[in-house]
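Appendix C reproduces, verbatim, an entry submitted by the partner laboratory led by Prof. M.T., so that reviewers can inspect both the input and the predicted structure.
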Amino acid sequence: MTADIEVAWSALGGDSALVSRVTTVGRPGALPARLPVRELARACVGVCALAAAELAARRAGLAEVPAVRVDDGAVAAAFHSERHLLVDGRAPVVFAPLSRFWRTADGWVRTHANYPHHRARLLHALGLPADATPEAVAGRLAERSAVAVEQAVYGAGGLAVALRTPKEWAATEQAAEVAARPLVERERLGSTHARVLTPLDPAAAPLLPAAGLRVLDLTRVLAGPVATRTLALLGADVLRVDAPWLPELPDQHADTGFGKRSATLDLTADRAAFEELLAAADVVVTGYRPGALDRFGLSPQALAARRPGLVVAQVSAWGAYGPWGGRRGFDSLVQVATGIAATESSAGEPGALPAQALDHGTGYLLAAAVLRALTEQSYDGGGRSVRLALARTAHWLTDGIRPTAAMGAPYAGPDAWLAETDSPLGRLRHALPPVSFAGGPADWARPPLPWGSDSARWR
């Protein structure tokens, strides 16, 4: 059950001997799908926990890396975290009415319009008024081909993807570009020594491998926030910064805001404040489409030039390469483009994975890549750049992982891995973190705070 963990750990540059520190608990029935989603999820969480344990051992001077335990039940609950969330008993809205599959003249298309500006661009591309109903959208889409809709909506800055079979996706230039890249792209940024991390007390409880680290979180939606939420669990001071005119969806923020602080900043008008944050940061994580932040001097190379020794982590939908490199994207759309939705289809209609597994899986891999970069830095200094893409994780799922029979007690639902806590947002029911190693944290130190409620400065 560790073969996929070995593959992911190798992609992170880890010592293969450490994989023996991982044990897994199978739960038949967790994350059921035609594709090996359970195996993907287990591997992503497993390497994240192992990277955390490795860094903890390094900083605490332990003779042995703490044992890691990966429970399929905990992983399944966490991969559904946005669906298990309750705020004062209210269930979240995961997808807006215009975020769904639609029939077209020759097939299917999926749109994403959870954010108001994406909804507005979708309707503009279709020549519909701002108050158009789903019925009006369905009528307009039924008149056009799926690819024509995809091109028109993307041309207007919106999000729509035509349904492709695995064979159709494999024939695209973007698929070839994705397949040619490693699961985790890793690069050294200069040779300047990074800030020396203070040693950890090996008797501390819990043992927090990221304690004292400052993480500047420039991510949105799910994969990036899952990564930074995990770094917060492990003790990092995570400050999420958003543009004041682009508020996060409230339920999305509640789900991914555990352990973090949240501030707003105009990167043009408040440039001096941002540079002050950068000057003291250890890690910067970005989750916008490739190139979108470059005009603000936020490419890995530009950031490292101003803050030598920085770890820069990037996540995107399609990767920073190929004809789709500059496109926006989300988990649901990557599933549609890469043939996953076709593979999971039922009764003649497109399907979906049982969770937003590309987002969650890539998020844990991204956190693992940051942790491994910090461990490497502790030996030889230098800045680091790590980069992942949902489409590359999808390629691993469809072409790299093989299903295995789960052994153990059947998955009986998420209740054992859910908790409740009071917060400024209300009483929250939430999934517990699946990242677990001996002596490590079992829950976040703080609940999420209101979006934009903190000042844009380090503690």
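Residues 37-60 form the longest helix (24 residues). Additional entries are available on request from the coordinating office.
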